[in-house]
Amino acid sequence: MSDKVMNASNQQTDEYQYLTFYVQDEQFGVGILVIKEIIEFAIITKVPQMNRYMLGITNVRGSIIPVIDLSDRLGLGQSDVIRRTCVVIVEIVEEGEIFEIGLLIDGVNQVYDIYPSDTEDAPNFGSRIRKDFIKFMGKVENRFVAILSLDRLLSIQELSRSTNNTNEYRGR
Amino acid sequence: MITIDTESSIIISPPEELVIRTVEGFVKEVQAALSDAKSIFLNLIGVIEIDSAGFQVLIAIKNEATKRGIPLKIIGMSSEADEIIALYGAQSFFEN
Amino acid sequence: MFFSNDALQEAIKEFRDEGLDLLSGMEEGLLAIQEFGMGGDRINAVFRAAHTIKGSAGMLKLEHLVEFTHIAENLLDEIRNNKLHINEPMIDTFLRCKDHMQNLVLFYADNLGKEPDDEIKATSRSIMSILKSYLDHTVVANDGEATLVKDKKGWKIHIVFNNDVYLLGMDPANFLRYLMNLGEITHSECDTNRIGDLSNLNAVDCFITCSITLLTEKTEAEILEVFEFVRDDIEITFTSLSTEIQNPHEESSSAVLDTFVEVDNTKELGSAAASNNSRIVGSSSLRVDSDKIDTLINLIGEMVIANANVVQRASIIQDGGLNESVSAVSRMLEEIRESAMKIRMVQIGETFSKFKRIVHDVSKKLNKDVELIINGGETEMDKTIVEKISDPLVHIVRNAMDHGIESIEERAANGKNPKGTLILNAYHDAGTIAIEIIDDGKGLDEERIFKKAVERGIIDENSKLTQKEIFNLIFEAGFSTVETITDLSGRGVGMDVVRRNIESLRGNIDIKSTKGKGSTFTMRLPLTLAIIDGFLVKVGVTHFVIPLDMVVECIELSTRYRNEMHGNNYINLRNSILPLLKVRNHFEEAGEPKNLRENIIVVRYAGMRFGLIVEELHGEFQTVIKPLGKIFREIRGISGSTILGSGEVALILDIPVLMNHVLALQAHNEKGGADDVRDD
To answer: What is the ipTM score, two decimals?
Structure first.
């Protein structure tokens, strides 16, 4: 019983915890509840006919996980693999199914508690990235960090868009 | 084969041939497994050969359950088991 | 009730599976009676299905199902005893009855502990009233029967078998079964007290004591003969019941009817063991939750991957003993994998026989006469695939009956046999399963399809298409719309969905058709979904796997071939044209090839061949297929991925799709070229 109570209270604080990381020298954050694990940069197999930011698929202990170049997806240009490059694997629910997707980033910073009182809406202009990719701006150490909206960022609808001319292949 | 389903109930699945040759071993197995069962499920789906010796073991299991005051339910029935139970008019015996 | 909720759920689930099996047997039996008449064990099989379902339903206290099935069972029983002649409308009623029982079974399975609502009960009542109207006819017939019974005598026989009966090699049950030959056993009872409880049971001693009511024309002496050679080992007492039975008219006629029903139940059960071997085979199989098998197969898949890693590391160490052990483990793993895959394999026949009913119903509805021929029902394939192709198959069959096979009049007018033929055919072919749906109807109308596709905006009216391309238009989304939606086909699902379903299984579908003569739809499907033998190649930095079954040969792309190549499009291979696809260009692999050596992998699929130009050859590789997931759903030409021994991921080439692509290019480059590459 006490376990359950503890879990419940953990969950409450977890809800306001965010992992921040670097992409092209800029800091971004995502809620830690969606993060499954963080792995070192591994060999990624490119999958043809996909958008450039879709780097391909990688093997995480026997599971095939797609990996996107977060920088490229955010419109900040392609990433270079550097020493601190790693992949944050997030779990999202879309179209009624759980998906795991890896986000290639330039290095993990740290976890912050950000309570609703310390947030602001995404700015209407002035940001380098699409407004709908930002959930809100969170205040940490007197700076604002963009907390990403994964629903939009990782929309299956958008990610799955292939670059081929599908009809060409249709049993003609 | 006998599986302990939860802490309290056991599922008894007799061998495919529940006949005079096999009944002794089967009875021993059931006796050992019954110890503190709170309910018994008798799964006869896999019984493809059964004679009167096999039949009387089934009756004895039911009697044992009644003696101990624990419920017994048949959860699977093969046509062969069904036939002999009907032959002896014992369908209703297992139903209460 | 002592059933815990979980146990009840489990029991109902079991009941549902068993019930659905029985019901499909019942349907099969009914259709067989319709086709071949009453003979053999058919009516008994139908009766038994109803009887067993009623019994199990009673055990689970599914009251409405018991009530409903009871009537059907009674009527079947009358038919079984030749008290009533079965006819066409009756079979139709029984088929409706079977459908309704199926609905009820599913209802109880989905609504634990609930009884059906009034709407369902209303359906039950309407079917029951039809069944009852048939039954009423038999009561009249029964009166005549009842007078006959007057000559029979009732005997109450009490038999105590001594303890050593088993040891003498006798089974009391056999005596009771033999008594059934002398007359009808209307009641039997066993003294359960004598058997006692399990803790005190000496299982090899006989404790059988039973009482039987036998209705027979035989005399006491004749009955006693049965027990002639056990006379010393039993105590037997006879009581005559003649006065009770001899005046049946004093009882209500329904009571008499009940007596007969009960009699025959017992009798039928007696003969069941002797006459029905197929049930025995069914009973010896084990019903296992398919999740458990999936888990097992997944684990084996993981193990194959892990083992590939071991093999690779061992090959680096180059220790003879180690290599030997590793290859021994690999061999065994291969065997384990094969046996595990076999667990999932089921015969397609069961799915095929579903179509007897569909053809029966649809031909009635359309007023067409169609004979269904089933071939290759014993062909085995993965259960998941069988389940997933069921709907597409239904759709194609309905389509064939709806649009393919003509009406009786039209066929006669065209000098065809008024009875149309529909063939379902399954067979193994080069690592795939082929399923053909063949009809001898009017065939596809190229002109009409073309016109319609233009109307629907699928193609431009100036398009130059081959016959095959025109046929394939019916699989395009938006092709089958209002015009073709009848009660039967196209209920919201078009042929595009059919093709999509088949392709999602890494299969494909092909049409051949001759105007006026008929059409053949051929589905090709992989044998299994989980693991295949693959051939590993590399292009640039990417590994690709080609299903080994489809690989014919590997040829080095020599200077000679290179000179003969026609812009990467084809070469002449032993005097036939081999269309080519350069994987590097096709998948826009980055960078330049490491060296200029290239190889051609000749692959064969659905009777055609083409060559894939690749760079490095890595040989055979056991491939655990990992689906790519929804994100990659729009990709064409790659059917999945797999993990190599190094941990890297390889992509599995979708040969059917690539083949279509190559043939399309070929056809457009040189008119009719596609036909030249057929190799059989």
So the answer is: 0.91
